[in-house]
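Hey team,

Filing this mostly as a record. A colleague (T.K.) asked me to run one chain through the structure pipeline before their review meeting, and I want the input and output archived in the tracker in case anyone asks later how it was produced. No errors, nothing strange. Just documentation.

Input sequence:
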Amino acid sequence: MNILIVEDDPVSQEYLSILLRPYGVCQGAANGREAVQAFQLAWRAAKPFNLICMDIMMPEMDGQAALKEIRRLEKTMGLGPEEQAVVIMTTALEDSHNVDEALYRGGASSYILKPISAELLLEDLRKFGLI
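Output structure:
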């Protein structure tokens, strides 16, 4: 599995890498702009990301904007829902606006609140057939 971890906090990025490393190759991005670039480069290299874990609050481009751009790119490529990356938003923001924005307007696959529970994350990976 090819995994992109989008997180501006190095400790959180490392924590997710430790949790996910047994299941695939992890790559990091520090903001949404880097995430979109990594997404595009992975597709060009024929190694698309199966899983993207993305924080919402980040500099330059936040996770909500990056998610929408990634979903727009997938649509432009003609990818159906079963071919799209699983995107799990990982954030401390639990207000209904951010949840709705990510899940219903942005097309996120799931939404996990910080501090991230390893059990919840692995449960999502199983639910989406990634492990």
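Quick notes for T.K.: The radius of gyration is 13 Å. The beta strands are 2-6, 25-29, 51-54, 86-91, 110-113.
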